[in-house]
Amino acid sequence: MGITIAALLLTAGPVIAPIETTNVHAATSPESDYVKPDASYTDNGDGTYTLHGVIHGSILTSGENAHPTGNGLTVSLDGIKVSSTGTVNLAAPEFDGYKPLYNDYEVDLEDNGDVYFAGLMYQPTNATTINENKKSGQPYSTTITLTKPAITCDDTGLPNSIPGTTKFVTLPAGSSWKVDRKMYNYEETYYRVGTNTWVDSRDGNEESHLGVVTTKNQSALFTKDGTKIANRVLGANTAWLTDQTATINGQTMYRVATNEWLASRDVK
To answer: Which keywords describe this protein according to UniProt (predicted)?
Structure first.
């Protein structure tokens, strides 16, 4: 088993004896299958509540026997007002080249301020989007150093089990792995470190590069998933410290603040 797994991985890191566990996904609501995204809400004091943050609509393969591709469509919740806490239905937004599986999806506003959601899924509808989703995730280049033993999962997000056992393939804490793709599962980001082998990004730290980049022109900023940040730009000919580089949607990017990335095309 060790030889087989090591041969698949992008770097020749060690593989330790797998451990038994079922805790392999992001936090979900105790009473449901809802997923907790990076979102919140504000009580407006007039019986309405305003949502904040983003969620990701899961992209499934087309046709019968559809399964998650690990790709997601970013949906902003910012500014959406609802008239109650608890479970509310929101219309599924439309995207070119995709159709929602359901006309609406559910958002659950908990009394403690947490927000959960469920039922936001899409399928590609044309040759371009079908082809874009034949592979799990999107190109992404970085290195991750694991801070704890990391259970691996396959291209569909299921844990990689060892045949004939109840154990899962686990990579050791302290090992570093080259990443070539990332995908979303249960609102968490997973990095591919080998063929059909992914780890949860929360199980380690990305490689840091401390340096300085200087803008050529007034430059837009983007989130880690490639979404342009509204009303945020950097001035022309200004220098900024950067601690990470990554390939996002095929473009080299520099991190200049928490979840704020500058495109290399805008750098001298």
So the answer is: Signal
Q: Could you read off the pLDDT tens digit of each residue along the chain, which spans 268 residues?
A: 333 333 334 433 333 333 333 233 334 443 447 888 888 999 999 999 999 988 889 898 877 777 788 888 889 999 999 999 999 999 999 999 999 999 999 999 999 888 999 999 999 999 999 988 888 888 888 889 999 999 999 988 889 999 999 999 999 999 999 898 888 877 788 999 999 999 999 899 887 666 888 999 999 999 888 889 988 899 999 989 888 877 787 778 888 888 899 999 999 8
Residue 30, domain member (yes or no) = no
Cα dihedral sign, 30-32-33-39: negative
Q: How far is Cα 45 from Cα 48, in angstroms, rounded to an integer?
A: 7
Quick one: 69 and 126 in the same domain? yes
DSSP secondary-structure letter at 264?
G
Residue 33 located in a structural domain: no
* 42 and 125 together in one domain: yes
CATH number at residue 180: 2.30.30
Q: How far apart are CA 191 and CA 184, in angstroms?
A: 9
Number of domains observed in the structure of the chain? 3
Residue 92 neighbours by CB under 8 Å, 6+ apart? 57, 100, 102, 103, 104, 105, 120, 122
Q: In what order do the strands lie in the sheet with 138-146?
A: 197-200, 188-194, 176-185, 138-146, 204-206
Residue range of the domain that includes 243:
211-266
Whether residue 244 lies inside any domain: the answer is yes
CA quadruple 29, 32, 37, 39: dihedral sign: negative
